[in-house]
Amino acid sequence: MAITKSAKKAHRASLKKHVFNVRRKRALTETTKTVKKLIVTDTKAATQALSAAYQAIDKAAKRGVIKKNTASRKKSRLALAIKRAEAVK
């Protein structure tokens, strides 16, 4: 447990930041899941949902929830999955 006044304040701040980070990460996973589900059924809807996924990924990278290269990898893999699904159909 935090003893000093500054440590207590830092702990409070970290709890507040945790809420934002969890929210950002949840948005990231939900949008990527919806894109992956749409790839199987409807590729045109998946391409439209891809922009929302890109936005969530970029915001997570900007806030430091995920690293920059991880964000880039996620975006490229989603785009590649859509491209492959369109080629099959």
Describe what this molecule looks like in 3D.
By secondary structure, the chain is mostly helical. The chain has a single domain (5-88), classed as Up-down Bundle (Methane Monooxygenase Hydroxylase, Chain G, domain 1). Helix content is 89%, strand content 0%. Helix 1 (5-41) packs antiparallel against helix 2, helix 1 runs parallel beside helix 3 and helix 2 (43-63) packs antiparallel against helix 3. It is elongated and about 65 Å long.
Question: What characteristics describe this protein?
Answer:
mainly alpha; Methane Monooxygenase Hydroxylase, Chain G, domain 1; 3 helices; 89% helix
Q: What is the fold-level CATH name, i.e. the topology?
A: Methane Monooxygenase Hydroxylase, Chain G, domain 1
Query: What share of the residues does DSSP label as strand, in percent?
Result: under 5%
CATH class: Mainly Alpha
Shape: elongated
Indicate the mean pLDDT: 94
Query: Major beta sheet, specifics?
Result: none
Q: CATH H-level name... which superfamily? A: Ribosomal protein S20
How many beta-strand elements?
0
Explain the layout of strands and helices.
Elements: H1 5-41, H2 43-63, H3 68-88
Helix pairs in contact: 1-2, 1-3, 2-3
In short:
The chain is mostly helical and about 90 residues long. The chain has helices at about 5-40, 45-65, 70-89.
